[in-house]
Amino acid sequence: MSDINSKVVSATKWSTVTEIAAKLVSPITTMVLARLLTPADFGVLVTATMVISFSEIFTDAGFQKYIIQRKFSSDKELKDTTTVAFWSNFAMSVLIWLIIVLFSSQIAELVGNPGRGNVIAISCVCIPLAAFSSIQMALFKRKFDFKTLFFVRIIGILIPIVVTIPLAFFTRSYWALIIGMIALNASNAIILTLKSEWKPRLFYDWTIFKGMFSFSFWSMIEAISIWLTSYIDLFIVGKLLNEHYLGIYRTSMSTVGQIMSLITAATTPVLFSALSRLQDNESEFRRLFFRFQKTVGLLVIPLGVGIFLFSDLITDILLGHQWLEAANFIGLWGLTGSVTIVLSHYCSEVYRAKGRPKLSVLSQVLHILCLVPTVLWAINYGFDFLCEMRALVRLTLIVVNLAILYWLCRISPLSMLNNIKSSVLASVAMIVLYYILPEKGNVAVEICYAILCCAVYLFIVMLFKEDRKILMGLKNIVRK
After folding, report:
1. How many CA atoms lie within 13 A of 384 on its CB side?
2. Which of 72, 170, 379, 434 would be a feasible disulfide site paired with 77, CB 3.0-4.6 Å?
3. DSSP string computed for 278-312
4. How far, in Å, CA of 100 to CA of 440, rounded?
5. Angle of helix 2-36 versus helix 146-159 axis, rounded to 10
6. In whole angstroms, what is the distance from residue 44 CA to residue 165 CA?
7. pLDDT at residue 270 is higher than 80
8. Which of 145-149, 272-276, 425-429 has the highest mean pLDDT?
9. What angle do CA 150, 156, 160 make, to 5 degrees?
10. Cβ burial, residue 2 (10 Å; 0-12/13-18/19+)
11. Cα Rg for the chain, rounded, in angstroms?
């Protein structure tokens, strides 16, 4: 257990450092690109990303999760399985890319971007590039080697600075975003292959493939359901509105995602890897889950409340005046997102770690049954109403996942709520303070208010002994 704990701490440290580095650079690149390009340009990127992400579900087929979670009897079995997974991913990705190239015009029409088949065809070269590196990434995560992934991510962070921004400055075209995305995937494929001890070799075994596929089938179905949850509303907006609104809609989500992923992207892969190792030790499994939930709650809940309270300020700083109509959605998406992450997001990691991806599929399908009718109804009443209802409907995931988690692990909703009560109380104090403060609207004043809200939050949570211990631990990690 001490070995697992030390690996988790080390992995979390490097994963956190990675996300901190990313968040120091990403807002700057977003600020620059949002001022060089239009919402419609970002809308073109959204449709390309929609196709790529859907295709990658089938090229990976859940093999990455299989390699992370599976207990192998020997090093040889691990290497043979990795090789079969690599060639399966790569062959499928090339085949899918060729199909996309052949039917690119029809696909562009389907996703609401007619006349841009060449954009779809060229951007989807990312599919084989991503497939080339995904298995190596799984091996690093399996070994908790997030230090290596840190250096890979740092190179990826620099791609927008050296590629995307200069191209956007000279071309003022969505092609800058497309080429930057391709360059990022190419750099990941090259660096991960060079850094990995495992290298592809000429070997294939259909028996191994069948075993992997039978295990990973539900992981692939789960990935499809997650894709539908993430993109089906974008498909509807792209078809029924236009590229301008699609760009605002998706950029609002991704802006909040960039801020939230400072925490979620640093913890989620570590949590899955750690829970997978503890799947047979129920007491330690529960203890680790609650520790992660409490720690993440201390950071994410006030972050979401802060995004909601200061959405105009965040939009103006990160995106500029031409994006101000996105401010309301950014605020609501941040607020509902913080609650969803803490009470729902990590439930899926429990299902996967327990080898029960069917449960994640069930939760996603139930959510989609609420999401699609809500979006189709709300879009008739204007873009602002659509954004409000889209943010609120994601809360259905919480109800579904809390019920499933109780059935699977007997982790009650009350115990999860009790685990984060201090961060909720302190965040409520932030809200009360903000609404009694006078003279809002000035940028300098809003920044001062944001600092004051943070101070009040920290003061309240430090009154709780366990929270104080967690925050001091995080402080020591950052200091190191």
Report:
1. 4
2. 72
3. TTT-HHHHHHHHHHHHHHHHHHHHHHHHHHHHTHH
4. 50
5. 0
6. 17
7. no
8. 425-429
9. 145
10. exposed
11. 22
